[in-house]
Structure formats: structure tokens, C-alpha cells
Automatic annotation (TrEMBL):
Official protein name in the record: Sulfate transport system ATP-binding protein
Tree of life domain: Bacteria
GO biological process, any: quaternary ammonium group transport
UniProt keywords, alphabetically: ATP-binding, Nucleotide-binding, Sulfate transport, Translocase, Transport
Residue ranges of every copy of the ABC transporter domain listed in the record: 3-237
Gene Ontology cellular-component annotations: ATP-binding cassette (ABC) transporter complex
Organism of origin: Zhongshania antarctica
UniProt GO MF annotations: ABC-type sulfate transporter activity; ATP binding; ATP hydrolysis activity
Length: 241
């Protein structure tokens, strides 16, 4: 799925969160939105998802304006920093939930839903833990369940908002590598929000650097590092957080 953003602006009260953002996200790529806190990354992600409307501007999926497309038809998998798993449901039930929502109209048999949920849990390397509850897992494992659930709807687009932000450095590193591999297997167009440069560097095909609601630079990881587009980008990249 190719995503095109054209002239996106969004204001909260007097504050301009996004100012005339234009961006083409290529089909199948893994794009990182990188930038300091408050630069508009999450707002942009939420606008792509349809969770927030732009004041001005348009979002196109494969050339189709999403303005009149209901959320559930956008087929977007969304993963947040804090998992948002259902506590009272087993892992299998958590993943199945996405499948039921998607397939209600077709009445997919329960056995088929169960089999697909188990397959997805295997894909995120949690085979054998299907009957556990989220509180019995580590943070990294929970985030993998959240990913399995997001993948259950066969998303055309996967949006991740600081998905590893709550985890410790070692687990974050493991999950980066793992997400990279998973992305290669699934080939789903993926947009990944982070304020962690190392994360963007290791994961992304291309990086967008956001500053004060605008795109300060877009390019491959090498381009962005070798030729910062402005002193602001240079300063941001030089700041190791
Ligand atoms: P980032 O993800 O880069 O940290 P955000 O997109 O979350 O940045 O936020 C950009 C700015 O917009 C922030 O200053 C934030 O306070 C403001 N903002 C975001 N959402 C809202 C909202 N619903 N109401 C008011 N201000 C908001």
C-alpha cells in the first residue's frame, strides 16, 4: 500500500502541531518518523490512521482519498507504547478478537479463528503460550502479542507509536531486530514513530526527521547522517539524548 500525504496541517488551539506536511510512503517500506518530543510525530501517525482528522490536507492510500473511508475499511494495524491488551483474555483470545472483528460479516468458524490466532502467535515466537494471560508475560512478550493482534486483520498498513518505549534497552534491541525480520517476512508498509535515533537507524529503510510540525528532512539513514539538511537536523542528530 502506497500512502500519500498532501498539505497536512493540524492545529490544537493556537498551537500548530503540523504545518503543511507532504510525504510519500512507498509500498512495503519501513519508514521511521524521528524527531524530538512535541514535533508532531504521533499526530501525523494518528492522521494516517484516521484516528484524528487534519484541518487541511489529504491522505491517499494507493491514490484513493481516505476522507470518506470508514476506519474499519482502512485495514490498519496499530500498536501503541502501552500494549492495550485485554487483561481478562488469554493471548489466543486477544489475537482472536481482531480476527472476529474483521470476519464478523463472514462468520468464520471458531476453529478457523483459533487456528489463525495460534499461527500468528507462532509468528511472533509465542507458540505454546496461547492460554496464558498478559500479566504472566514480560513487557517484550506483551508487545509481541500486540503485534500479533495488529497483524490479525491482515493490515495493509502497520503503524507503530513508540512501541518499545516502555521496555529496557536490552529488550528494545532484541525487538528491533525481530521487527526488522518480521517486516521482511510480511512486507507490510510500516510507519514507526520514535525519538530514539539508534532505533530509527537500525530499523528503517528511510527516515523522516520532524521538527516543530514540519518535515526537516527525508532520506535514507545514510543520506540523513551524511548530509543533514539544516543546522537544526545536525544538532538533533548530534544530540545523543
Ligand atoms: P510527538 O509525537 O512528536 O511527541 P505529538 O504529535 O504528540 O508530538 O504532539 C505535537 C504537539 O501537539 C505537542 O505539543 C502536543 O502537546 C500537542 N497535542 C497533541 N495532541 C493534542 C491534543 N489532542 N490536544 C492539544 N494538544 C495536542
Amino acid at each position: 500500500m502506497e500512502i500519500q500525504l498532501s498539505g497536512i496541517s493540524k492545529q490544537f488551539g493556537q498551537f500548530k502541531a503540523l504545518n503543511n506536511v507532504g510525504l510519500n510512503i512507498q509500498s512495503g517500506e519501513l519508514l521511521a518518523l524521528l524527531g524530538p518530543s512535541g514535533s508532531g510525530k504521533t499526530t501525523l501517525l494518528r492522521i494516517i490512521a484516521g484516528l484524528e482528522n487534519a484541518d487541511i490536507g489529504s491522505v491517499y492510500f494507493d491514490g484513493v482519498d481516505m476522507a470518506n473511508t470508514p476506519l474499519r475499511e482502512r485495514q490498519i494495524g496499530f500498536v501503541f507504547q502501552h500494549y492495550a491488551l485485554f487483561k481478562h483474555m488469554t493471548l489466543r483470545e486477544n489475537v482472536s478478537f481482531g480476527l472476529r472483528v474483521k470476519t464478523r460479516a463472514f462468520r468464520r468458524p471458531a476453529a478457523a479463528i483459533r487456528a489463525r490466532a495460534d499461527e500468528l502467535l507462532k509468528l511472533v515466537q509465542l507458540g505454546g503460550l496461547e492460554d496464558r494471560y498478559p500479566h504472566q508475560l514480560s513487557g517484550g512478550q506483551r508487545q509481541r502479542v500486540a503485534l500479533a493482534r495488529a497483524l490479525a486483520i491482515d493490515p495493509k498498513v502497520l503503524l507503530l507509536d513508540e512501541p518499545f518505549g516502555a521496555l529496557d534497552a536490552k529488550v528494545r534491541k532484541e525487538l528491533r531486530q525481530w521487527l526488522r525480520d518480521l517486516h521482511q517476512q510480511t512486507g507490510v508498509t510500516t510507519v514507526f514513530v520514535t525519538h530514539d535515533q539508534e532505533e530509527a537507524l537500525e530499523l528503517a529503510d528511510r527516515v523522516v526527521i520532524m521538527q516543530k510540525g514540519e518535515i526537516a528532512q527525508l532520506g535514507s539513514v545514510d543520506q540523513v547522517y551524511e548530509q543533514p539538511a539544516s543546522p537544526l537536523v545536525f544538532d538533533f542528530l548530534g544530540d545523543s539524548n
